[in-house]
Amino acid sequence: MIRPRQNLDRVTASAALAALVISGLAAGAAAPANAATVDVIGVDFSQPTGAVKGGASGMLYGLSDDGVPTDPIIAGASPKNLTQKAPHGAQHPNGDPLEVEDAFFENGGQYLMTNIQDYYPDWAYNGGKRPSDFSTYLDIVRTVVKSVVDESDHPEKYVFTPFNEPDGGNWYSDWNSMKDVYLQDWKAVYQAIKEVYPDAKIAGNGDTGWQPTRTRDFLAFAKANDVLPDLFTWHELGRGSLQYFRQHLAEYRQIESDLGVSPRPVNITEYAMRRDMSVPGNLVQWLAMFEDEKVDAQTAYWTYAGNLNDNMAKTNGANGAWWLLKWYGDLSGQTVSVTPPALNAPDTLQGIGAVDTAKKQATVLFGGTNDATRLDVSGLDPAVFGTTVDIQVRKAEWSGQEGEAQAPPVVVTKRVAVGGTIEIDVPSDNRLDAYQAVITPALPVAPVSDSTWSATIEAENTTLRDVEVYEKDPAADWTFSASGGFDVGSTNQVTSSLTWTVDVPTTGTYRFGAIAGVNGSKIGPGSHALFVDGQQAATIDYEAGFDWGYRGRGETLVSLSQGRHELSVRMSADGTTLLPGSDISLDRFDLTRIDGPETTSYPAVLSRTDAPLDYGKGAAMLSGDKSATFFASARETGYYDVAVRYSTTGAADLGLRLNDRTITGLGADAAGTWTSTARVHLAEGISELRLASSQGAAVQSVTVTRATDGDAAGVQVEAEDSSQITLHGAARLETPGAPTNVSGQHLGWLGGGADNYATLTRPRGLGAGQYDLTVRYANADKNTGHAYNTDVITRFLDISEDGGATTRGAFRNNYSWNGFWTHTVPIDLTTAGGALRLGNTTGNAPNIDWLVLSPLVTKTTNAPDAVRTADATSSRGEGAGKN
Length: 883
Prior knowledge:
The protein has 883 residues and is mostly beta strands. Helix content is 14%, strand content 38%. The chain contains ten helices and 55 strands.
């Protein structure tokens, strides 16, 4: 049964004050949002501004290795363009385009740019000096282009960038003395590229910022010498670019016009700063600006490669920003006129509006304000939408960089008549959050908001003892964001604590969550004690992170009776001993009622689909080769029931592909309304579900429900279990240092040669078939020489079946050798009981704590429904309205 949710999102909202009583305020705490202030953003769907471009979610070094990030993460975020290093380049230990191109292009990528100068190992390139013998660089250029031509499966989709930030520390910063040199070098490089690959596409200039004089000189020369770039590029990095970019682009277009140069596509190949990454409310401002101007753009690479530039969580998870990128990737049709409270004003409410008349959907993405928001929507065409529409508003809440965010809840719903201006009030109160409003013709059942009870408080607004409040200026480009502009740190004394009171509506189980920064490289994983009414009730475990400002999430379950309770996060459980790794920065706490297994329902009319939509049925009308794709979120690795609700006019197949693996046994044997369910193993994070029906099915929804009773189908083996694991060569068991989240020993020194491996005896009863191998691992490997990027290294584990095939799993850096994460590798086994060999002949494998081998599917059922209704909105056991 789906339970209602009360939408109490922050303690500063008046409704939340009744539920969350703050017992003390920290000195210097951020002032609450003014509930009386309302920011208004107008959207006129009758005023198109051009086709949706969708190219502003590109990224620099967003992918690092084959498998990092995972395919579902890439497909959901849907980046259309990337910049990676030169093939076989030495600038970073990963990010080779030849390693990531398949995953990029197979998941919707359109073109891949390569920085040729990233062939060099040093930053600035070649010590910051132009080679005295420039022919040596021309040789590098030819080598790079030849590698793409010879080794890539898609050379026609590459764009070559010969110079990166030439106006900075890379060879040509003094334009007065280096202009003529640069222009001749450009000509030589351009011709060298074309010499190797006549059809090559070339990008320039790639300056650190907008440079009008250099641009005019360059374009005039390039036109006169027939060496014009195919794309024009520069960087817009600081907060000020939100104010001045439109002016810069207008100046660029004027220079083109003045010189008679045909308009070049523009790609802003680096944008935004550390303060923006992972933050939906900041990123939506950049996306709106670039989409409005119809340019492509790529987020900058400040931290490390392979995590969409901080816009995903851990190995396979979504953070709040990932959901915004997913929504942006969902846009289709035409963008429309949007009027924010102020244009070109950083850190204010901004948005994107789009309408797809074929799909009969109108969408607004918006955010960036601490005040309440009102959408003033007009221009909906009754010929498209009918006389009545349903409106659903979802919230992508900031969750930190490594803090996983589950599917965004519906926070506002409205059914209204079409005509005039429709006002939609949205209870926004945190500038770090973003929202999606979707408008469709009326559905069979009116949508409802997620009504799970929850409450939130900023850490700095609790009663503080022996800790420090640190300001995190929201406008500071190089500062990782913090909710409310502050966090609480120096949590390193036995007497340190953060305490507050809360009123809970019912007796039951609650999930306590903390957004926190863990300095994994210096400390490792950590823990705090959660006290309720003066008694320890639970331990909050935190996995290792990048540093104190780079935030993840710790969670624990706690039983509470109805009424008021004092909650206290403490650094000691017994009052005398400091908990291991307790020195953790704390940003925000939340408490959420749990009622039954976690359940999320995804409406088919909001899926990514090429099938017709029937809003009267609330369904995607699948037939032939049409499909509908859903991106489902799992809080933890384990078994889930994936239930598809649909109707047919006769017997029909139902094809389901889970992360591109086929699930069989689903379908209807007669006309009617059906629910077909597969119990499947899902990895923590995002899974891609694709439905099809060659014979025809009107799919209404996909509902994903946690099935903990199914977890017994997986077999867990500890690394130190010598009855199951045999060690060879240098492979050996070790005891990690403290603090650690390993209870015993881990398996290390795997790989680095063919002789160093472990053999896992195949558990009984697990014969040939599709499996997931979940590995609890540690990998803190990295290079240490770059000026500002953390050059993390992915380690690979080769899983070879005796008598079968080898599967390679990619394990990204997780910050600490003492802290372990879980990552799941899909494997297909073909023998009845062949042992599994774990190693890596070409490099080092990760350290391993334990492994779980789980069948991908354990059962399927197909059941007719007695009553035919449509699931018009998404819902979950902890609430409703997820998508």
